[in-house]
């Protein structure tokens, strides 16, 4: 079913009733799993992902890849290994994606590179940080959701990092073919919009304007790109606020419950 | 794989654990009773995009999610345009399912999809599900079409203990919460369904007098003790490990009342499989008598018969068990699972208490 | 997932032609019934040392039920090892067992691919559990052994329809053969075992008649019975009176536990009979 973009110009409302600069509901939890070093659950609209971080730990014996095992041992920084599992029931039509699916591999390497750049991997030589992501439900902005969930889980695991790596998507109100130079940029695309409209995924380091990941897989006029990017970076700042809130709330609750001791120098921390 | 993953216990620790578990009553490392399960957190219908879903979190942190999705598929092998009106009765008789209508996949992080142990887990779970032949029958729409059910079982956490009971219980809950759209078409015409999800009937109708999906329990024996829901460490010293699948028999109110049977559900045994106990690949201990570090063995090493020592068990020194299990032990394990008002009953009661939706 | 590296057969299913012949008509409608005693197994032929290049090997053939179009079971097993593990693999205090069971593409009515499918992997896991109990594994630290079984001909009648759903019962028969032949090959390779282990199958069957009661037979042929209610496959060590692998499938109410234990007993019986053949064959080789 093609997306009806004509309605947008009338009411300036998108198919799901949002304005151009509105994010979908983001709901996140950290420490969802008792046994893992770090874990998180993130919903961006109907996109639902879970993340479990194990490590930093000693690399286990590698099966099969004998050469890689020897190379890994000599590394001065921790290796970030990401695995993405897309559940068969995650999309509307059941589709089983193999583990060596090319799109999956690309997602994995993008996330691994983004995390490796912002985690202080040099503090953990000869070790591995295993990030496993599970996609339970997909409705657009998959890469962005995965990056955000991975960041939260790394925070939970207590791995030192420069700042949150936060991501979101941005798009444009009309298709490439329409050639409409004055099209408005859109924030946080859902699945329907992602199929029809040009879009990009951008991840930044915290509130700074430093872009960590930029993926644009669709065709779009250069003139529109800048606007989209600006909206995307702005969205990342909003996402960071939300994620930060989640982490702080959880920390506060843990102090109140007595799970962890209040850190030093935090005597004046506000605990309501 | 999962049962044989390396447990970082020394031979001395293994010997200690084995001894503690062989006492009467056994002393488990976490202080549980032999038939006691670990606490768990369960929820169902967590994913609106599926026909049914469930999530279970064990207290040790292992977590699994199961999603069920159904698709309409054309039944192969029906080439009849013979429009003979057989009436409703005949139609009911024709209702038969095929095992291919259910596809079950298990996904365990860190293991390849085609790993033998993953295949073993999937085979075990689907075997129990299809054992009575009644399950596939539920997927029949009409003579030309049927539902194809996809069960995707995902272990979210790294496999800390043998995941079989967790996956089985999660699958049970997911199937209980599974609903298929209400059929509006009649007879053998192309099926169309009611849009109203609230009207969709459950695959396993809610109520008392219905059968429920089977559950698979892991049970092990150490010495004379039978232990349920073993942890990874306990499995490392098991003499025998069985996976037993049980289903609930359709409760026929009249027959149970008439005979005045013991309270509890009547269960059906659906499948039993031996799970290769990881204890067989644990490192053995070295008795002091043959340990060269203690000096005595300097002479023993020269003796050509030093090998014969391995045959004798030394008290307190761990040796990986050899051979299998006595038939009587195996029978006792199965008997214990099926006991009326026993563990299987308790687990089914607990799962009953999980609210749907 | 198309297998592009090999020349494969036709994609669609091919059904051997069934000609409209009077004899065939009779055969198709009349199910052959079991002529053996309920507690007798089929004759089998076992020979060890058939593959000179392997360190141990064995060949097992189980006779057909004496009827055209029903094939028996033909298995060949090779054992490679014990040999040292690859240099980079971690230390193991025991011998590492790896089992591969593969149906030949033409072994069953439904053509099998070249890659192992889940059911074959499942058989491999069962076999591994059965053999691991028999092998004295700590005599070979840091070593591995590969056990490879090819099922050259599966135990399937030609005229039974594929949609009968008796696949598992065939699998149980195949597994019991695999266990017996692998045990012979292990002995041929000179790997120390606590005892020879053999497989046996017992089943609870029901005839086609209305008033036929269920009875227990050993070594069942699925095509000979109207309905198999339950079956179990057992790997048994006779000298120690121990079971190393048990696989039961069926539908058994809890008040029928007597039948279950009877089934297991009969499975052990079948295994004992197979073991006798196994021991005799090994004895011949020694002479």
TrEMBL record, chain A:
Molecular function terms, GO-annotated: RNA binding
A GO-annotated cellular component: cytoplasmic exosome (RNase complex)
UniProt cross-references to Pfam families, sorted A to Z: RNase_PH
UniProt GO BP: nuclear mRNA surveillance; poly(A)-dependent snoRNA 3'-end processing; rRNA catabolic process; U4 snRNA 3'-end processing
SUPFAM superfamilies: Ribonuclease PH domain 2-like, Ribosomal protein S5 domain 2-like
Domain Exoribonuclease phosphorolytic: 22-160
Family: Belongs to the RNase PH family.
PANTHER family to which the protein is assigned, alphabetical: EXOSOME COMPLEX COMPONENT, EXOSOME COMPLEX COMPONENT RRP41
UniProt-recorded name of the protein: 3' exoribonuclease family, domain 1-domain-containing protein
UniProtKB/TrEMBL annotation, chain B:
Compositionally biased residues, Basic and acidic residues: 88-98
Region feature (Disordered): 75-98
Gene3D superfamilies tied to this protein: GHMP Kinase, N-terminal domain
GO biological process: exonucleolytic trimming to generate mature 3'-end of 5.8S rRNA from tricistronic rRNA transcript (SSU-rRNA, 5.8S rRNA, LSU-rRNA); nuclear mRNA surveillance; nuclear polyadenylation-dependent rRNA catabolic process; rRNA catabolic process; TRAMP-dependent tRNA surveillance pathway; U1 snRNA 3'-end processing; U4 snRNA 3'-end processing; U5 snRNA 3'-end processing
Main subcellular location: cytoplasm
GO MF annotation terms: mRNA 3'-UTR AU-rich region binding
Membrane-traversing stretches: none
GO CC annotations on file: cytoplasmic exosome (RNase complex); nuclear exosome (RNase complex); nucleolus; ribosome
UniProt xrefs under InterPro entries: Exosome_comp_Rrp42_subfam (IPR050590), PNPase/RNase_PH_dom_sf (IPR027408), Ribosomal_Su5_D2-typ_SF (IPR020568)
Record keywords: Cytoplasm, Exosome, Ribonucleoprotein, Ribosomal protein
Localization (cell): Cytoplasm; Nucleus, Nucleolus
UniProt family annotation: Belongs to the RNase PH family.
PANTHER family in alphabetical order: EXOSOME COMPLEX COMPONENT RRP42 (PTHR11097:SF8), EXOSOME COMPLEX EXONUCLEASE RIBOSOMAL RNA PROCESSING PROTEIN (PTHR11097)
Official protein name in the record: Ribosomal RNA-processing protein 42
Protein source organism: Lasiosphaeris hirsuta
High-level lineage: Eukaryota, Fungi, Dikarya, Ascomycota, Pezizomycotina
From TrEMBL, chain C:
Cellular component aspect of the GO annotation: cytoplasmic exosome (RNase complex); nuclear exosome (RNase complex); nucleolus
GO MF term set: RNA binding
Localization per record: Cytoplasm; Nucleus
Keywords for the protein's UniProt record, in alphabetical order: Cytoplasm, Exosome, Nucleus, RNA-binding, rRNA processing
Exoribonuclease phosphorolytic domain: residues covered: 41-191
Pfam families per UniProt: RNase_PH (PF01138)
SUPFAM superfamilies listed in its UniProt record: Ribonuclease PH domain 2-like, Ribosomal protein S5 domain 2-like
Major location category of this protein: cytoplasm
Biological-process GO terms, alphabetical: nuclear mRNA surveillance; poly(A)-dependent snoRNA 3'-end processing; rRNA catabolic process; rRNA processing; U4 snRNA 3'-end processing
Domain of life, per lineage: Eukaryota
UniProt record similarity statement: Belongs to the RNase PH family.
Protein's UniProt name: 3' exoribonuclease family, domain 1-domain-containing protein
Organism for this UniProt entry: Lasiosphaeris hirsuta
